[in-house]
Specification:
The complex is a heterodimer of chains A (291) and B (140). Chain A is of the alpha/beta class and 291 residues long. Chain A has helices at residues 28-37, 47-50, 59-71, 95-112, 134-147, 165-177, 242-251, 272-287, and strands at residues 10-14, 42-46, 75-82, 116-120, 151-153, 155-156, 184-187, 221-228, 257-262. In chain A, α4 (95-112) runs parallel beside α5. The longest helix of chain A is centred in the middle third of the chain and has 18 residues, at 95-112. Chain A is globular. Classes of the chains: A alpha/beta (291), B mainly beta (140).
Chain lengths: 291, 140
C-alpha cells in the first residue's frame, strides 16, 4: 500500500499504557527498553508521573534521560501534562496562574526534546467542555510555544465527538490566531465500533464518531493516541476499526506519530500490557505497509 | 478504577508518642496515575467499624515528616504526593485502636482538572490489633 509522497504515520508508545506496572514492577528505563524491544520509536510520557521531582528534574536525572533515549533509540514525541484548573478547592485557576504553569511545562518539554504537548485542559462538565478562559491562557502561551518549538494539543477523547462544537471552537481559534503551535491530539477511542472486553469499563449508551470524521481534522492534528483495549491472538484490535483509520491517515499523507495506548484489562498483571503493546505495534506495522 | 491503590496491606498500626498511644495510622497509594500537590487531595475519610472518624482528627503526610489537616491542605501546593509513594494517614485518637478485630475503611478523593467529578478510591480491610504489642494482621 503506498500513497503519493511517501509521508506516512510513524509508530510509538504512550507510557500511560504501563500504569499498572510503573513504580511497582517496572521503572522508566524498563519501559523504554520494552519499547525498543518491540521496535517502537516515538515516546509519550506523562510529565507528572514519569519525571522524578517534576517540574524540576535534577541534572543527574536529565543526564540519564538523554543517555536512555540514545541507548534505546527513542524519540521524544509527546509530553503529557495538565493545566490543573482545580488546584485549589472552590475556585478555578486564573488566566495568569494557568499561563505560568503552562510556561513551566513548555520549557521542560523543550528541554527534554519533545515537540508536541498533550495539554490537558481543565473541564467544566461531563461533555468535557474546557474551562472558560482556555483561549486567553493558550493565546498568552503561543509566543512561548513558538520560541520553544512545541505544539500545544488538547486531547480529543471519548465522549467528545470529532464533529462537535468543541472541535469547531478549537479550529476557529487556530484559524483566528493563524497559529501552528496549537492543534489536536486525537484519541482513537472516539471511533470505537465494537464493545470493550467484558467487565471492562462498560460504556453502555455511548455515541462514537465515524472514521469519516477524522480526515478534516488531520491538518490540525500533531499526534494520535492509538487507544486500544484488546488485541486478539491473531493480531486484530477488537474494538476499533484500525484498518479504516490507518487507511484514512495514509490517504491524507498524515506523518505524525501513532502512540499505542493500552487501556484494557489486566494492566497490573506483569507482562500483559507489554504483550498487548507488542501485538498492537505489529498490527500497525502491517496496516502501515512497513516491511 | 483506583480502589486497588487504596489502603496498603499490613500498614495499619497504633502510634505511640511519649510512651502513650496517641492514635493510629495507615498507608495508601494515590488513587491516580500521576503525582499531585496536596491541595488537590479533595477528601480523606476513615471509618472504624462503620463509625466515621471526625474530619478534624485526620492528618496526612507523603514524606512522614510534615503533617497537615484536611483544611490546611487546601492551600498546600509545594508539598507533593508523588505517584507510587506510600502516603500516611494518621488519626488522632488517644489510646489508639482497641485490641481485637476491626473493620477499617479508607477513602481517598482526588480533585482532577479534566473530569468534573473527583476521583475516589475506597477499600475496607479487617485489622486485628493486639495490645500492648502492636501487631496486626490484615485481610481484605
Amino acid at each position: 500500500m503506498s500513497y503519493s509522497n511517501g509521508i506516512k504515520p510513524k509508530r510509538g508508545v504512550a507510557l500511560y499504557s504501563y500504569l499498572g506496572e510503573f513504580g511497582t514492577t517496572m521503572t522508566l528505563e524498563d519501559m523504554l527498553a520494552d519499547m525498543h524491544g518491540m521496535g517502537a520509536e516515538g515516546l509519550e510520557i506523562l510529565a507528572n508521573s514519569h519525571i522524578d521531582n517534576y517540574p524540576e528534574p535534577t541534572d543527574a536525572w536529565l543526564e540519564n534521560w538523554f543517555k536512555m533515549l540514545e541507548k534505546y533509540k527513542i524519540k521524544p514525541v509527546e509530553y503529557g501534562h495538565w493545566v490543573d484548573s482545580r488546584l485549589y478547592p472552590g475556585r478555578e485557576l486564573s488566566t495568569k496562574e494557568s499561563y505560568d504553569r503552562l510556561l513551566k511545562d513548555i520549557k521542560l518539554a523543550n528541554k527534554l526534546g519533545f515537540t508536541v504537548m498533550r495539554t490537558k485542559l481543565g473541564v467544566i462538565d461531563g461533555a468535557l467542555t474546557p474551562v472558560k478562559n482556555w483561549r486567553e491562557f493558550i493565546e498568552m502561551a503561543l509566543p512561548d510555544a513558538e520560541k520553544y518549538n512545541v505544539r500545544l494539543c488538547p486531547e480529543i477523547h471519548h465522549p467528545t465527538l470529532l464533529k462537535s462544537q468543541m472541535i469547531d471552537n478549537y479550529i476557529d481559534f487556530i484559524n483566528k490566531t493563524k497559529t501552528k503551535y496549537f492543534g489536536l491530539t486525537i484519541d482513537f477511542g472516539t471511533m470505537q465500533t465494537n464493545p470493550l472486553p467484558s467487565n471492562w469499563m462498560a460504556a453502555a449508551d455511548s455515541i462514537f464518531s465515524p472514521v469519516e470524521d477524522l480526515a478534516p481534522l488531520l491538518p490540525y492534528t500533531y499526534a494520535c493516541h492509538a487507544k486500544f483495549y484488546n488485541m486478539s491472538d491473531d493480531f486484530v484490535e477488537t474494538t476499533t476499526p484500525y484498518d479504516k483509520i490507518i487507511e484514512v491517515l495514509l490517504k491524507n499523507n498524515w506523518g505524525g506519530y501513532l502512540l499505542s495506548e493500552y487501556e484494557g484489562p489486566n494492566q497490573d498483571v506483569p507482562g500483559y500490557t507489554s504483550d498487548q503493546l507488542r501485538k498492537h505495534q505489529l498490527m500497525m506495522k502491517r496496516l502501515l505497509g512497513e516491511e | 478504577m483506583f480502589d486497588n491503590y487504596i489502603f496498603t496491606e499490613n500498614t495499619f498500626r497504633n502510634v505511640e508518642s511519649d510512651g502513650k498511644l496517641s492514635g493510629f495510622e495507615l498507608k495508601t497509594l494515590i488513587p491516580y496515575y500521576r503525582g499531585i500537590p496536596y491541595s488537590m487531595i479533595h477528601d480523606i475519610r476513615v471509618s472504624v467499624d462503620g463509625n466515621p472518624v471526625e474530619r478534624e482528627k485526620i492528618r496526612f503526610s507523603a514524606d512522614g515528616e510534615d503533617w497537615f489537616t484536611l483544611s490546611e491542605m487546601e492551600t498546600v501546593t509545594t508539598y507533593k504526593w508523588e505517584y507510587g509513594t506510600q502516603g500516611t494517614i494518621y488519626v488522632d485518637q488517644p489510646g489508639g485502636l482497641s485490641a481485637g478485630k476491626h473493620e477499617v475503611t479508607l477513602a481517598v478523593v482526588i480533585r482532577v482538572a479534566y473530569i468534573p467529578v473527583p476521583f475516589e478510591g475506597v477499600r475496607t480491610r479487617e485489622v486485628i490489633v493486639n495490645l500492648p504489642k502492636q501487631e496486626e494482621i490484615t485481610n481484605e
